[in-house]
Design brief:
Blueprint (H helix, E strand, L loop, with lengths): L1 H10 L7 H29 L2 E7 L6 H4 L5 H8 L2 E3 L2 E2 L6 H10 L3 H4 L5 E4 L4 E4 L3 H4 L10 H7 L4 E4 L15 E2 L8 H12 L9 E6 L1 H9 L4 H22 L5 E6 L5 E2 L5 E3 H4 L10 E4 L3 E5 L3 H12 L4 E4 L4 H5 L11 E5 L4 E3 L11 E2 L14 E4 L7 E3 L2 E2 L3 H8 L12 H5 L8
Parallel strand pairs: 1-8, 1-9, 2-19, 3-20, 6-7, 6-8, 11-16
Antiparallel strand pairs: 2-18, 4-5, 9-18, 10-17, 12-13, 13-15, 14-15
Length: about 425
């Protein structure tokens, strides 16, 4: 017995692993675990549909009716699935706030991008849409964008332009994304999206954003009633047709959603409200800042007397709504305070516009947005959605744009990880098989 025990004891050292062998086994184990995880992620991605979210910037809710011969593909798309009578933007009804609301399910006052430009007291810095450092800095952006939620869920996301997609929000960017370049033609953007969706399993994205600015640009320059807008509608409609045709050839369930961030309003330059004519504009210098969005203006100042005097001055202007922080939650969906929340907000009635000095600066554009949506129907955009789980000819009343977010998450089988203003029941109730 003891001899056997002794023999066993002598054999024991030969079973001990060398440090190099331990390292090799650790590497092999990690590789195996990665392969299992990767296989699980690939399976999950393959089981989930593709969701393509296209934005037609500045596409007003009534353009399909106004330009029926130029929007045949969009009309066919609307009839093939869900179509809202209008997509209602948050305030201000501008590009950056509402694109980011669509992908976070939060109103601008909640996600923090409260305008195409605004001031942040805590940073002592301004955010501007043309400032590449700010646009690509994820710390400016609140909420959890759809592409972040998708990537965190183990799937891939892609973006051919969208507000926030170039930034490292929560330290995450889409697997595939493009730095904004408005000179790239829409057909090349469509081609790239289709190429992404044809990638092998494990590489192809389940969620893709796509953006066209054509209609918005024409609306600003020539006005919503112009021949140029009609031509712009026809141009984007053609590319929507190419996109739909390409998606139909992909052997995988696909949902296509078409939205717009806001509508467009004809501006009457003769009704411009020049701030220098109605208030002590010269006192708003240095730390006292005014940031104008055309239809609205944000006022930031720690000088209580100056803010009070400016409020009184502006209140006397016909067609100008002036709001103090106590009114922000009910009228603007803004909180009453915060580092980016102004001390005053002024909004003109359409078709007016806000300027600084009479006879100075550039003239107002032919078309504008940013107005209060509750009193300006021309600010409404579009929302259409089609896919295997959506019945054709599904008509939906006006819907706030924050409700798109939970619908996309639901289709992709992802649970929202943070707060959202969007409610799945608003649009999810129209899905096939939805249980009341």
């Amino acid at each position: 017995m003891y001899e056997n025990s002794s023999t066993s004891a002598e054999l024991t050292p030969s079973l001990r692993l060398s440090p190099s062998l331990c390292s090799l086994l650790a590497v092999l184990l990690a590789a195996a675990l990665w392969a299992v995880s990767s296989f699980a992620s690939e399976n999950q991605a393959n089981e989930r549909p593709f969701v393509v979210l296209l934005s037609l910037d500045g596409f007003r809710a009534d353009y399909l009716d106004r330009y029926p011969n130029q929007s045949t593909n969009l009309k066919r798309l609307a009839d093939s699935g869900l179509a809202a009578t209008g997509l209602v933007p948050g305030f201000p009804s501008s590009t950056f706030p509402n694109h980011y609301s669509i992908v976070t399910g939060l109103y601008p006052g909640r996600h923090g991008i409260i305008g195409n430009g605004f001031y942040d007291r805590s940073r002592d810095a301004r955010y501007r849409l043309g400032d590449r450092n700010a646009v690509e800095d994820g710390t400016w952006y609140g909420g959890e964008p759809l592409w972040v939620a998708v990537e965190k869920a183990g799937m891939r996301a892609a973006s051919y332009f969208w507000v926030g997609s170039e930034a490292d929000v929560q330290g995450i960017r889409p697997s595939y994304y493009k730095i904004y370049d408005g000179s790239i033609p829409n057909h090349k953007r469509v081609d790239q999206v289709l190429d992404w969706l044809r990638l092998p399993i494990g590489e192809r994205p389940n969620f893709v954003t796509l953006y066209f600015s054509t209609v918005d640009s024409a609306g600003h320059r020539y006005g919503p009633d112009s021949t140029e807008v009609k031509q712009a509608v026809a141009s984007v409609d053609k590319q929507v047709g190419r996109l739909v045709t390409g998606l139909a050839r992909i052997d995988h369930p696909v949902y296509l959603m078409v939205s717009s961030d806001h509508g467009m309003q004809q501006v009457d330059a003769d009704q411009t409200v020049f701030l220098a004519d109605v208030m002590a504009l010269g006192r708003w210098r240095g730390s006292n800042q005014i940031i104008s969005g055309g239809a609205y203006a944000f006022f930031y100042s720690d000088d209580v007397q100056l803010v009070s005097q400016t409020f009184d001055d502006l209140k006397r202007v016909d067609g100008l709504t002036v709001l103090r922080p106590a009114q922000f939650p009910d009228v603007l969906n803004f909180p009453q305070s915060g580092p980016r929340i102004p001390d005053l907000v002024a909004v003109v009635e359409a078709p007016k516009y806000i300027g600084f000095h009479r006879g100075k600066g550039r003239k107002p554009p032919q078309g504008a947005h940013g107005y209060l949506t509750a009193t300006t129907p021309t600010m409404k955009g579009i929302f259409f959605a089609t896919g295997p789980g959506i019945a054709p000819n599904t008509q939906v009343p006006d819907v706030d744009n924050v409700h798109i977010y939970p619908l996309v998450l639901n289709l992709l089988g992802i649970q929202a990880s943070g707060e959202t203003d969007g409610d799945l029941s608003v649009l999810g109730s129209y899905l096939k098989g939805h249980a009341e």
